[in-house]
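Input/output pair, single chain:
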Amino acid sequence: MEFSEDVGKGPPGGREEPLDELLLVAPAAILEGLPDAVVAASRDGQIVFVNALAEEMFGYPREELLGQPVQLLWPERVRARYVRNMQLYFSTAHRLRFSTEAWGLRRDGSEFVGEMTWGVVETSAGPLLLAIGRDVSQRRAAEARVRAVAAMGERALAGADVADLAVDAVELIRTTLPIAAAQVRLAGRAPLASFGATPEDGMRLPIGDDDDLLVRPQDELSDQEMSLVRAVANTLATALARRRDEDRMRHEALHDPLTGLPNRTLLRDRLEHALAQSERDGRETAVLFVDLDKFKEVNDAHGHATGDAVLVEFARRLRTAVRPADTVARFGGDEFVVVCEHVDEHVVMALGRRLEAAIQAPLTVDGLPYGLSASIGIALGRSDPDALMANADAAVYRAKAQGRGRAVLFT
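Output:
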């Protein structure tokens, strides 16, 4: 059956068809000129017409499709449903016209989603099911990518964990773009997320200071695909910047701005944690209250800038003298506190002497020599942080009363 032989010609015997009847059947030339693919099937499900765009969309030459069952163009998983619907269309008294999404099957076995307009039309050869539409798989995929990036952006602004976002970013790129490898790498750290071999020879998109999104494509990416990669990189950059701002604010809230040491708030937290551990394991925690001797004289004689330099060096010496797990905090002004877990009187007094030696080492600031000393009050305990701090403070006064520059244990 040829779909268009009788269309556009005069009827047999010279009788003119009414205009509305002629419009019921579109000439093949019109269907060929449509900007969409067209497939027509007869009541028995045989394909009777395809235009050039349908050939391109399904991957078949026209001669291979004509006369074949229309089910050939539908994925097996939906064939039974589509056949029932087709039978319903033909049996309905009032002809249906509607648009919907439908799945198609290409010659190579790949599937696509089409945006289709369906309808049953009357022709001189009988009713035909006419399907007109286009492959919208790429558009749908692009829309899905945009939604995924937008969702990532919302999560980044909401403070989602950067490592989780990195995993999602690599997965999005891997599943939607033709890439061989991708990686989110932060400076000086192991990759947060990766796919494939390390993409050193691929694209490098900065997402922070020495932080990168690395992507190695299998083929050259289109402008649309590159836009996705850039959008993912921008989202990761936003998340990293937010996290670093939050880290900076948390650090500033808990650390002394001059020396970088923990402040009173963080000191209290560390001390309470250490005492809780002492109560569990029965071992003692020590507090060493360190008061720099005659610091006011340095400020008065040489100014606050010199005094600040002395405090910074004093803090550095305290950090280098203690154990790695010990906490050194600036309590205020020229007062510092050291918290040590799992110690006894012998260990903590040895630490006090080590602090004295570190503090008394020669010091030069801006070419001027300074001799430093400190009075150190030491207290041991397993509970009550306030009492432990008060005992260490009391021991400081005893050290000063005994001539300064020494460590005294509270008893």
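The chain has three domains: 12-135, 139-254, 264-409. The first strand starts at residue 37 and ends at 42.
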